[in-house]
Amino acid sequence: MKTLIAAYSGVLRGTGSSILSALQDLFSITWLNRSKVEKQLQVISVLQWVLSFLVLGVACTVILMYTFCTDCWLIAVLYFTWLAFDWNTPKKGGRRSEWVRNWAVWRYFRDYFPIQLVKTHNLLTSRNYILGYHPHGIMGLGAFCNFSTEATEVSKKFPGIRPYLATLAGNFRMPVLREYLMSGGICPVNRDTIDYLLSKNGTGNAVIIVVGGAAESLSSRPGKNAVTLRSRKGFVKLALRHGADLVPTYSFGENEVYKQVIFEEGSWGHWVQKKFQKYIGFAPCIFHGRGLFSSDTWGLVPYSKPITTVVGEPITIPKLEHPTQQDIDLYHAMYMEALVKLFDNHKTSFGLPETEVLEVN
Prior knowledge:
Subcellular location: Cytoplasm, Perinuclear region; Endoplasmic reticulum membrane; Lipid droplet
Order of helices and strands: HHHHEEHHEHEHEHEHEEHEEEHE
CATH class: Alpha Beta
CATH topology: Glycerol-3-phosphate (1)-acyltransferase
Transmembrane segments: 43-67
Number of strands: 12
Family: Belongs to the diacylglycerol acyltransferase family.
Largest sheet: 7 strands, mixed
Radius of gyration: 25 Å
Helix content: 40-55%
Strand content: 5-15%
Strand order of the largest sheet: 1-11-7-2-5-3-4
Protein name: Acyltransferase
Distance between the termini: 93 Å
Number of helices: 12
Pathway: Lipid metabolism; Glycerolipid metabolism; triacylglycerol biosynthesis
Structural class: alpha/beta
Number of domains: 1
């Protein structure tokens, strides 16, 4: 009898050991799957924004026009009526939604690269600011994540400051896309909008302008740190007219996330890009990232490379209702010097050699 009990106990001990081992294996498999699911969610969150940016406006326009020819024509009529009534809202800062800015999808977006925001100095709520964002990259992904969402906690790092990322005004003529952009605090990059935000919207406003624009995007490629700035002085004039402080901002890694076909000066491709830039306001780029399911294939998903956006020290700007060219040149030179200094002070912290030089064109 004792022998039987001992044998039975041995079996139970063996069974318990086997169950424990099986549970450990199960948890390790679950964790592995969870990790993979997390990565796929990050990829999908980035892809949805890329596709929204590239095709949402055009797709919604086509769908609404088609709806006019169906039994659901009233939906299209109501939306276009609303669009006409709401046409000038983007020029007044849009309709920011804290709910949209705090969506969980943006945290997956942030973690995919990952993206981080580095604060070097405080921004006072009693002042208004123009943040010059450099470089443009292909899509300005760091600018979007840091200033149009709360994924990197911009509102906690700069309490009382309302960021407005400025982008092409044409985007706000696209149905549905305009609502999506405005919900994140994105506004048109034109004089009327910026004048309103810096003069009729109180203080604590920070307008983020990607200064290099389409011209800078054409030179975007991995390993290159270059900005288009020497002839870009309009943002300095705006700052002087409103007494808004200028804040140099550099995004390390912005150029690393896409590879682009660079057309040489004088080639047909470069000619086409320049014509688009001149007459439409943007330059079409031939670029690629990785595929949806594999980093070894080509696709529209950007490469998973770190992007670190460093917000520099504000340059105090006086309010001059009619700034002279000499005034503009003086503060433009101060801004360029501050941007180069910001780059030099932080470049080694983000993987660049001490010998790396910021090319200012």
